[in-house]
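Writing this down once: the sequence line spells out the residues, with the fold written below as integer tokens. This is how one looks:
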Amino acid sequence: MKNPSPNSSWLRTNGFLIGLFIAVILAFIVPGPGSRHGILQPELLNNVGIALILFLQGLSLAVEKIKSGAANWRLHLIIQGYTFVIFPLVGLLFHFIVPMIWTTEPAAIKDGFLYLCVLPSTISTSVVLTAVARGNTAGALFNAALSNIAGVILTPVLVHLLMQRSGVAADTSTPFGPLLLKITLLTLLPFAVGMLIRPRIKGFVDANKAWVTRISNAVILFIVYTAFCDSVEQDIWHRYGPLLTVQTIAVVIALFTLISLLVHLSSRALKLNREDHIAAYFCSVKKTLAMGVPLAMLIFGDRADLSLILLPIMFYHPLQLFVNGLLANRWAKAGL
């Protein structure tokens, strides 16, 4: 059997990022089918896709492996504290400070950074990077899973609270109570069903992880495509120009750097051992695009500028993969 070529290995590793780029370009070239009321019926398909993504996440969550990491309360405190308290507070700080430097920052980008800061951590990459760096893998799995389960409810609640605190109302046509109910039905319910079914088909799911990931990624790419279709149809991108991308990336880098430094300082102040320090870092600084895109569609779905709201998390995602991948390999060789 032949070994995969370097090119095919690179494509497998970066296929999703390439797919994101293609989805955005396709939206600029052919926006009609994916725009609101287009022939692809994104209003219906996106809701079905969101439920499917969360069902597959529940189906893939290895609950049987989580229990071993449940007793380390100091690790849980720092990861969940950063995910749902400190990160959102830093986001609120950026919300007030960044416009002093970037005076023309669009309101949708401001909302996008607030939204990025209240998202849960990733599951798969947090655990994989922790394992590569020889950290506390069980603790990383427990906390990443916990933040994703809690994030289904906490993310929309925090978006609502932070936007009120910052003087901006979440621009949705649905009142918050019914919106939260809709989010629960489309996310938490299918996630719970997936978890309940998993014990019966665990062997099949684990043997076909690659296909489960591909299906989820395909749905995410479709949602990203439809979000950008609406913004192209509304001529939003011509209004701001290419400089918007450069400015957004600069703020993303500043946010990532600040959070990374804070997590390192907190871990040392709490005197976490090397393994817990690694798990705390990878789970605390990472934000999930897989859950971020479908939740954004539910929370901000009525907005034509949804693509601008998604822009910070779409840039944060590859940055965290690149930097944390380098760190994981470095720590595996040399330690902290």
